[in-house]
UniProtKB/TrEMBL annotation:
GO terms for biological process: response to stress. It comes from the Bacteria. The keyword Transferase does not apply. Keywords: DNA-binding. Coiled coil: none annotated. Residues 1-113 form the HTH marR-type domain. Pfam families: MarR. The keyword Glycoprotein does not apply. Transmembrane segments: none annotated. This is DNA-binding transcriptional regulator, MarR family.
Length: 113
């Protein structure tokens, strides 16, 4: 993601924001498996670059919403395509069936308490 000026965490954040309704920051951190302070650190540079905006929640003045901007959507499309291409290249370099086995194993690990 370096060519796009993004970390993997920022890419995950932008993917989570690519929806019609902006999520509340408080709900997004657990969804992404991030500490709230880590999420805040990821948000600041993206906000400065104009890729997302932080706005007050009209239903809860104490809460803030994160919205991806049109510039953010454009960059996300490019970065996601590069990510897919890189993973397809990696998958093709591995023996048949191994990529699926690796993903299944990682999914099992992710489900551990």
């Amino acid at each position: 993601m370096r060519p796009f000026g993004l970390t993997n965490g920022q890419l995950s954040l932008m993917m989570a924001l690519n929806r019609s309704e902006p999520p509340a920051i408080g709900r997004l951190a657990p969804f992404l498996g991030m500490d709230p302070s880590t999420l805040t650190a990821a948000v600041k540079p993206l906000s400065r670059r104009g890729l997302l905006v932080v706005e007050p929640d009209p239903d809860d003045g104490r809460s803030r919403l994160l919205r991806i901007t049109p510039e953010g959507v454009s960059l996300l499309r490019e970065a996601a395509e590069a990510w897919r291409e890189a993973h397809a290249e990696l998958d093709s370099a591995l023996p048949a069936g191994l990529p699926a086995e690796l993903r299944d194993g990682l999914a099992l690990l992710a489900d551990l308490p």
